[in-house]
Amino acid sequence: MNTMQPASKRRRRAGGIAALALSATVVAGVSPGAAAQSSGSPPASKVTVAIKASENNLTPFTLTLLGLPVSHDLTNLVYDTLFWSQVKDEPEPWLAQSADPSPDRKQWTVKLRPGVTWHDGQPLTADDVAFTFQKMKSTTGGRYSHHVWEYPVFESAEVLDPLTVRINFRDAAPTFKILPGGDLPIVPKHIWEKIDDASKATDILPVGTGPYKMASFVPDQIYRLEANAAYFKGKPKVDAIDLPIVRDQSAAFAALQTGQIDSVDRAVPPELFDQMSNQPGIKVVQSTRMESVHLHFNNRKGALADTRVRNAITEGIDLNAIVQTVLLGHARPGRDTWVHPDSAWADPQGGHVFDAAKANQALDDAGYRRGEDGVRRTAEGNRLEFGLSVAANEPQHQRSAQLIAQQVESIGVKINVESIDAATLRQRRGTGNYDSFITNLESHAHADPDALYFFFHSPAPGAPAGSFGGYSNPQFDQLVEQARATIDNTDRKRLLVDAQRIYAADAPALVLYYPNGDYAYRTAAYNGWIADTGHGILTKRSFIRGYETAAEGTPASSAGADDGPPWAAIGVVLGLSVVGAGALAGRSRRREAFEAEEA
Question: Residues 442, 138, 192, CA angle at the centre, nearest 5°?
Answer without folding.
Answer: 85
